[in-house]
What does this fold into?
Amino acid sequence: MFLGHFGAGLGAKKIDSMPSLGTLFFASQFIDLLWPILLLFGIERVIIEPGNTVFTPINFVYYPFSHGLLSVLLWGVAFGLVYYLIKKKLKTAFLLGVLVLSHWFLDLLVHRPDLPILPGSEIKAGLGIWNSVWLTVTLEVVVFAAGIFFYLKATKAKNKKGNFGLWSFIFFLLIIYTLNMFSAPPDSAQAIGLVGLSQWLLVLWGYWIDKNRTTVTRE
Ligand SMILES: [Zn+2]
It folds into this structure.
């Protein structure tokens, strides 16, 4: 899943306006920000195998540290704890922890059963929506659109950059998602890792959007 994780980050702003959109993206996409680093270091592994699912040629053979349920739970706790130690906001820290965990459950919908539960265990989960392109695209777009809807309800632009930043981000994500669907399979795990690393820029983009928007307050 890709767009859906950003949808979760956007929508979370409606629950709590305190954290920056960048921090919300950092949490909702945290394990996919970690994963390319682990891939590049050879700690986690993928095989490129066209047809693995209809939607993706990537066979996620080994990724217990970034995408194992227990690991993600611990990453969520760690993320929330670090935020709490810095900002002293318990409610926000809890929300960010839950957002980290939300990634696993959104991935659970689309992945074939390749998501580990515990490190070292062979039990893996995945509901396999990636076996249908239309179901996948519908799910991604619905979650992304819902996130945008709630984000727009929670914030308004302070200046032109506030609107431009947000809408260009939305279109950029839709374009790369579409291009990715029609492009040839990547030629190596390194290539996947390097492209994956560029997602850190999307987190920075989130901080920039947030700086130029303000919370809608209701009387
Ligand atoms: Zn993921």
User: Anything to note?
Assistant: The chain has one domain: 3-215. The radius of gyration is 17 Å.
